[in-house]
Write a structure and sequence with these properties.
261 residues, alpha+beta, OB fold (Dihydrolipoamide Acetyltransferase, E2P), de novo design (two linked rop proteins), 2 domains, five-stranded antiparallel sheet, two-stranded antiparallel ribbon, 32% helix, elongated, binds zinc ion
Length: 261
Amino acid sequence: MARPAESVTGLVVRLQPVKDHDLIVTLLSAERGRLDTWARAGRKSTRRFGGRLGLFADLRAEVRVGRGTMPDLVSAEVSHQWLVDGASWPALAFASYAAELALVAAQPDHPDADLIDWLRACLEQAPSASVDLAGARLAAEIGFLHLLGSFPDVRRCGSCGGSTAGGAVWLIADEAPTCSSCVVGGARQLDAAALLALSELTRVEIDIRLAAELVGEARALVTTRVGNLLAQVLHAPLRSAASLDPLTRLAGGAPEPRSNR
Ligand SMILES: [Zn+2]
């Protein structure tokens, strides 16, 4: 006897065509964490799937979980489509990268509401990511690392525990920065504005515009440290980074400070 279908809500983070008409739809679901589902005839536009199943769609779906087999996606209704047709290539590259990061962190049967919120924030802001794609990427990565508990607290000096509000040196990626009073010679790599932006970026619902506060040397330093931290978390480069890397390099990494501030 067929098992009853269960309701799930979630984001479509990956679509893999199988056979002639089917799709494996990977959901980041609120109920079951990462969930691979089999959508029979999912590549055809059908009523069961509320039209064509697309990437970055928020779904209300019914799945039937079998024993030892991939759950069937019985039906799906799109409650919101992030990134509509005609989205720019940088927006798509940014969204794909965020979705792949989320896939790496997501686990089956471990719902992670923060991870879903972070990804939704990325998808919501993807259309404006091209204004400063390198900064948007950095903001997304900082939020992601924070979510995993892998981003140090930048507000407190790693040496004396005092505030870093007056500037700090960030020497080692997974250690807190050192405040300017603790550093011999008073070298300061991160100024107050950069540190404030960093501390505001260490939250799940990122605001990619904050990356505009990271300019010049601070931007370069944070990009390097975040790269170090990500390399510790990701055991292999992400496929979607191949699309994003050339675009973020073209952007030059560090925009000019905005004159109207
Ligand atoms: Zn200190």
